[in-house]
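Record filed below.
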Amino acid sequence: MKLILNADDLGFSPIVNQTIFELYNLGRLTSASLVANMPTSQLALDEIKDHPNLSVGIHLNLTKAKPLLPAAYIPSLVRRNGNFYPAALFFPLALAGRISQTDAESECRAQIEFALEAGLQPSHLDTHNHWHMLPRFNQLIQKLAQEYKIPNIRLTSLRRSLLPSRIWLITAIDRDVQLRQPISPHYLLALDDWMCISGKPCPLLYRKTLQKLLNHPDVTLELVLHPGRAYDPEFPPDTISPKRRQWDFDFVCSPEFDSWLETLHGEIIQSRNIL
């Protein structure tokens, strides 16, 4: 198995930025995803220059804080206060057809071009809260990746996102997966979904069912981390709290994590290029 270790939410806060770069310096992640519309996004872009070998992509965001574009340009995306709809409202609105494709594309372009103008050469595209997995938006993220020559995207099939509640249903490699440009990994595993309230991974992470699925040389897994510190006074409200982000950080730095990778025969790849 080939393994991409990606940290989401670069730009959320100075402490989140710090922990992401710390994990990279420790050899515990290979890429990160930048949120372009947060107060510390520019700070993150400045720090990226000191880590030239870190693959950095764009975490396209339509569900948190304020957009880069004026609200009047993208009216279907924003509330009266000028902020994006939170995920709990965005998804029902999107499924009901009340989120404009044109508005979504315009804001995404603004976020990509913000990063490009700062000198970033994005290695991949993904989305905050995975909104690109909605059928209406699958083609949008692939279109943007192709147009901006961004070689990789996060997977666009929700059924290949590995969750503890349904992992027992999966017994073999998804043979229907056809890799194409832009490239996408076979599976996605967000570590936060597998953490218990004790701060430790749930036992299902070690089940043979998961090992059987992933322990294959042709499989590429993207392991998504949300690192941070339990104390983060500048952290914006989010579905994943600073406390839970500390759990991600601690587990990835532990010998237990190394042992888990050994059971999967996981090979950490140093780039998003999974050809």
Summary: Residues 2-268 form a domain with the TIM Barrel fold (CATH 3.20.20.370). The chain has one domain: 2-268.
